[in-house]
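Sanity check

After download, print the first record. It should look like this:
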Amino acid sequence: MRGCCSRDRLLGERTLRGATVDDVLMAFDQFRSGRAHGDADVQRGRLRHRGRRQAGPAGRIDHSAKGDAVTGMPSMRYPTMRIQRWLAVLVLAVAGCSAPAASSVAPATFEEFATHACDAFSAMFRAVGNPDAGTDSDLSKALDDAVQRGDPAEAGRLAEAITIELESGRQAASQAAAWPPGFAAMSELDRVLLAFEAMIDAKRQAAGSNSAPDPQAAFEAAGGSTSWEAMFEAARAMQSARPANLPPHECEGVPISW
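Expected structure tokens:
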């Protein structure tokens, strides 16, 4: 058994009745062994039962034998009770190693939202530059140079570095979205970052192929431009939920404030 209920983990648990899981596993092995013997006894009992029916008067069943009068099965009433008790303990042990219920997380505050949103924009600026101003980042410029030189290895290395930054921005946007009023804006920002990943991958392909997709077309196809506009619309609508007693939260190093 693997996962949450592996034998190794079970051995580290105790049941509510005070029995160790080793006891439970041993009892279960005994149960399986006993059931195998019991099946053999059933067959022997049935044979004995058929013999009595042939020897006795027609229509009569011999009730003198121990066990079940119809099948000839030896009585297992008390062993069954013991087995049921051990199986109940086994169920408790398995339930004890099941995954805990997800804990409720309180919504983020505005300050937490602003901090994570700034981190998301900072990551995007490090990756591709400022889309609003049309300026490239150092990584983006280096990638364009590698593509122009036809250097697939360098283009791949730079594309990977840019993608790591974009993924860092997506993680920060996801954390910022925990503040309910900022959810819509951060969801759109996440789509923008994904669209930039599509653009960067298209540039990487262009370093070693003349049939690579157009980077800007890849960005548009991923919904980048649409989500960019939708993000600012959602951010403007969000301002009504911003705490009035707090000053603007300026993002360090990027021309963004919340």
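If your output differs, re-run the checksum step. Summary of this record's structure: DSSP finds nine helices and no strands in the chain.
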